[in-house]
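Support reply, case 0932

Customer input (verbatim):
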Amino acid sequence: MVAADVAATKGSIMGNNSKLSISGALAAATCTLLGSGLPEPVQAQEEPGWDFNTALLYYGEDGDRVQDLSLNILSRRAFIDDKFLSLGLTVDALTGASPNGALPQSSAQTFTRPSGEKTYTTPAGELPLDDSFRDTRVALTASWQQPLGRLYQLSFGASASAEYDYTHAGLNAKLARDFNQRNTTVSAGIAVAHDSLDPVGGTPIGLAPMLGEEDTSNRMGDQTKDVLDIVFGVTQVMSRNLLMQFNYSYSDASGYLNDPYKILSIVDGVTGDAIPTNDFGDDGPSQLNVFEKRPDTRVKHSLFTQAKYYMNGKVLDVSYRYMTDDWEIDSHTVDLRYRWPIGDRSYLEPHFRFYTQTEAEFYRASLIDGQPLPEYASADYRLGNFDAITAGLKYGWKTGSGNDMSVRLELYQQSGSIPSEQLIGNQLDRDNYPDLNAVILQFSYRFGL
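Our regenerated output:
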């Protein structure tokens, strides 16, 4: 789909255990930090109501690549005794072209489409893109939050989503406890998910060759994967102006972890050019390619810290995240926001985010013809070495009826590289990892009933 860190950039889009964060405790502490206080208990109990937070987001990559139009609706219902029900709906419509993993070549390349029913051709010198990418995703979330006694807070929820070729179902729970006159909150959360994959044309067998039209001998049936996420967190009020949060996250995924639409080029060991084949004529690939294969388990460890500092109406929000996994990917994310009030009814919020990661241990630009196939291999650029920067500005204001509106515009730029020892012959003269640029535009509206 899109680049790995875009998910974080969107707040939805490839993700990071944020749903397990101690959001309830942080929200309450943030209210104290900003001096806004909490609603009067009696008033909150007498007039419970719904709060709606809606957003329409556009994400578009250059070069006719992935385009995403996303509608998000989050509603929260307050009940007496500090109990809350939250319901969420997300609808994503995705179109465009996505890199299939093959390398650019000095001659045109023909590939079999994922459906296995047709072919498509990439001109000489261009990065191969599969332009049949179309999908609509509908996701639902629900959660319930309530106090347990005077110092404990319990929340639990469920999530489900469906795409053309992918379904998800998950459960989550979180328990938080206040200490130190409610200046310290310690929490633990857990989430489990079961996902089912039914790729277009069937699930490719890892490292099996791409075949011609209507040949399904390299395919197998539907596949599944399971994910377990655990997070431990501490939120600390450092002073009346400074709030800090610290999280450790553990994630264990098992099952089918391949991208069924990604392939690798089989190349000559001297020239680096893809090996041509005449086995399929006009009804299949013109060069030799194999489908990627990843390990069937992945364990990730993440450390996250965030600080919010209040300065006479202005708020500085800084966070850092480090992630490492047993695929040998290490990543660093720095996120900076600065909210600047303009009068009493509006604000500006500049945003800057930097992301960098190392490549997976099985990342390969291509595979050499005649050599034994490795146990695992992928040319997916999202598993490669790259840096990404997101920069933009948000403008928010109060409407005449007292509701909140905002508009956000950001630019995303990603640049990566392939290890020099993996490039062979003519590959050194080609742009095998072109830069990716995208624009993000979001409109938000928050209101209560």
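We compared this against your earlier run and they match. Two observations from our side: Residues 1-46 have pLDDT under 50 and may be disordered. Residues 6-310+416-448 form one domain. Please reopen the case if you see a mismatch on your end.
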